[in-house]
Amino acid sequence: MKQIRTTANLDTTVRIPGSKSITHRYLIMASLAEGRSQLGNTLWCDDTRYTAKALESLGAQIIHSPEAAEVTGTGGKLDHPSKPIFLDNAGTSMRLLTAVACLAQGDCVLTGSDRMHRRPIGELLAGLRPLGGVVESLGKNGCPPVHIHGNGLKGGRTLVDASRSSQFVSAILLAAPYASNPVEIGVEGLVSRPYVDVTLDGMSRFGAVAGWLDEETLRVEAPGQYRPGNYDVEGDCSSASYFWAAAAITGGKITTLNIVRNSQQGDLAFLELLSQMGCRIEWHDHGVTVLGGRLRGIEVDMRDMPDMVPTLAVTAAFAEGTTVIGNVGHLRIKESDRLQAVAEGLQRLDVQVDEGQDSLTIRGGSPVGALIDPHNDHRIAMSFAVAGLVTRGVRIADETCVDKSFPEFWDRFEELYESK
Asked: Of the residues 100, 172, 282, 305, which has the maximum number of CB atoms within 10 A of its CB?
């Protein structure tokens, strides 16, 4: 259990680690490229380690230091793994690697934790089959474990229902350059579109030709390949959001380093939400500064940045008026039922919250201390830790769950108590 201490007069600088989403994608593209790649500022957390180990099982060679990786790729010729690949509850790893494993010759089983076995992947499997993917849910419930009979992808056209996860689209995109023919993906109901744009940006950097033909259709030229080289991972906007929120609710000043203004990461838009709530945002060559102000509630559609919902919800607990967060039903299939977990946490803090099927309505007030159960969800733990900077008595159970995406979170959080 982690006891959070209150603080005041925040004025500090925090360096943000590399993006988890980008690290996953760069590891995959470097592993498919033919030759050696150097990846800088990579994030090594539970999730990205599962991706790296899986790629090694498929034939890539990966040597990593604390913030870098040297990857010797396979040229798209993936090995047949000798045993099932365990991915715990790393949903990004499961979805992206399901498509990649179609390029291997032979059978592959991807499995995970009990929670993973309840996280849907059927839409991705349905999208892979018209392209030649031989894939099935072993649980027969549209969830992992997944069996892949690798025999390559023939290409062609497919339709993907992306109303529950953009990763179904990103998965096919990442594997598509190694199909025998060009791939066209019709996309229905896309949530979190910025993550698809992050995938496309990475593919372009690695030399693949892919992009939107129109608002609902993607095309990837194939057969093709990724180009090995030296690539740096930009800072993680999701991880930075907890420190932006800390500045907001304390009325302090926090500068986050390693955040770029032209990032494709959708969670960068969280800064605009804080601005609407009353914060001041200042950009520099080295990062961005958030200065807290008198906070007011807002109404926002967060379909495209669902990972920011817990952070915004905790910030809203300290704002005047009501905050309405809508169009986020897909949060119920994350590491936890994130809407329920956020509502429960706010209720423990004595904050008025209404949980809808795809929304949260939060009435700001004066939160009280409480023990927060993050339900083994890293984003719940980190978001509610921020509340403890202002409210005495906030404690986070199972605090090590942050290792899933931000192993150094508590160390960086302690830096807040060393303000200038």
From this structure: 172
Query: Whole-angstrom Cα distance, residue 349 to residue 371?
Result: 9
pLDDT in tens, 124-176: 999 999 999 999 999 889 999 999 999 999 999 999 999 999 999 999 999 99
**264 close to 198: Cβ distance less than 8 angstroms:** yes
Q: Which residues are catalytic?
A: 307
267, 202: one domain: no
Q: What is d(CA 94, CA 183) in angstroms, rounded to the nearest whole number?
A: 21
CATH of the domain at 132: 3.65.10.10
**Residue range(s) defining the domain that contains residue 287:** 2-17+235-418
Among 183, 215, 247, identify where a domain stops.
215
Beta bridge partners of 15: 257
Rounded to 5 degrees, φ, ψ at 411 are: -65, -45
Contact 70, 115 (CB under 8 A): no
Domains identified in the chain, total number: 2
Residue 72 burial (10 A CB sphere; 0-12, 13-18, 19+): middle
Tell me the pairing of strands 287-291 and 253-257: antiparallel
Q: Nearest CA to 304 among 255, 342, 267?
A: 267
Question: pLDDT tens, 195-246?
Answer: 999 999 999 999 999 999 999 999 999 999 999 999 999 999 999 999 999 9
